[in-house]
Write a structure and sequence with these properties.
5 helices; 43% helix
Length: 145
């Protein structure tokens, strides 16, 4: 099942652009000058946007990643708004439908990563990514913009 309906792709694109524009404005207007404070600021960036905007932005970005790296070997979960399977590799166990590699992220972490506000290494170091399996690093695929 698709993470976003075909008829919602434009809404998703708009929501993604809205999220990114809002995040960049917050960074420009509020980011501290001190390097360590700026680092913490970016790791905690989570724009106050309507739930529907968040949902569509996450779904649209998952769709972009799915198109960029098709496959069935790694499941990427961004609860509560979507999950996709990407990259070639061993497929799901037929009994539980979960591939051997699973990555779980909160929506704010996911959006920071796909927009390049933070890096995979930064979020992983901050223990914001839960990943199981051999292919537990998406840094070669992110950011999407």
């Amino acid at each position: 099942m698709a993470v976003i309906r075909e008829q919602d792709l434009n809404k998703g694109h708009e929501a993604f652009a809205n999220w990114l524009q809002t995040a960049r404005r917050i960074i420009t207007d509020q980011m501290p000058a001190d390097d360590m404070e700026a680092f913490d600021f970016k790791l905690n960036l989570s724009p106050k946007l309507p739930r529907q905007t968040w949902a569509m932005a996450v779904r649209y970005s998952l769709h972009l990643l799915e198109k960029k790296a098709p496959g069935e070997g790694v499941e990427v979960r961004v609860a509560p708004w979507g999950a996709i399977k990407i990259l070639d590799g061993p497929a799901s166990d037929p009994h539980n439908l979960t591939p051997p590699d699973v990555i779980e992220l909160e929506p704010d972490v996911w959006m920071r990563l796909v927009t390049g506000i933070t890096s995979w290494a930064e979020e992983k170091e901050a223990s914001r990514i839960t990943a199981v399996g051999e292919r537990d690093d998406l840094s070669d695929l992110l950011p999407l913009v």
